[in-house]
Amino acid sequence: MVCFCFLVDQKRVVRRSKPLAGTCSRCGGGASVADMRTATRFCYVPLYWKSWKAVVCTFCGAILKSYR
Ligand SMILES: [Zn+2]
Q1: What does the DSSP assignment read for 28-62?
Q2: Where on the phi/psi map is residue 15: left (φ > 0), alpha (ψ -120 to 50), or beta?
Q3: Beta bridge partners of 46
Q4: What's the angle, vertex CA 67, arms to CA 14 and CA 56, rounded to 5?
Q5: CA of 1 to the centre of ligand 1 (A)
Q6: Residue 17 CA to ligand 1 centre (angstroms)
Q7: CA of 43 to the centre of ligand 1 (A)
Q8: Is the CB of residue 60 less than 8 Å from the CB of residue 29?
C-alpha cells in the first residue's frame, strides 16, 4: 500500500528589517523594510527557499508592499 503525504506548507521568516517612514494602511502602525524568506516545505522537509523583500507592518504584520 502506498501512502501519499500531501502536507505542503510555507513558512515565512523575517531575516532582518529596518524601520521605514510610513504607516500601515490597516492599523496605522509603523512600517519597516524586511528581508523575507519563504520556505516551501513538504512533510516538514524544506524543499526550497525563496528570498524577497517586502514592506511590512511591525505592528500587525501586514505586507504593505513586496519586491521581487
Ligand atoms: Zn498594521
Answers
A1: --EEEEEEEEEEEEETTEEEEEEEEEEEEETTT--
A2: alpha
A3: 41
A4: 45
A5: 48
A6: 15
A7: 31
A8: yes
What pLDDT, on the 0 to 100 scale, is given for residue 44?
83
Closest CA to 56 of 28, 25, 34: 34
Measure 11 CA to ligand 1 centroid, in angstroms: 20
**What pTM, to 2 d.p., does this model score?**
0.71
Which pLDDT tens digit goes with each residue over 7-47?
A: 888 898 989 999 999 999 999 999 999 999 999 998 888 89
In angstroms, what is the span from residue 37 Cα to ligand 1's centroid? Answer: 20
Residue 59 CA to ligand 1 centre (angstroms): 5
User: How far, in Å, from the CA of 10 to the mean position of ligand 1?
Assistant: 22
AA letter at 29 = G
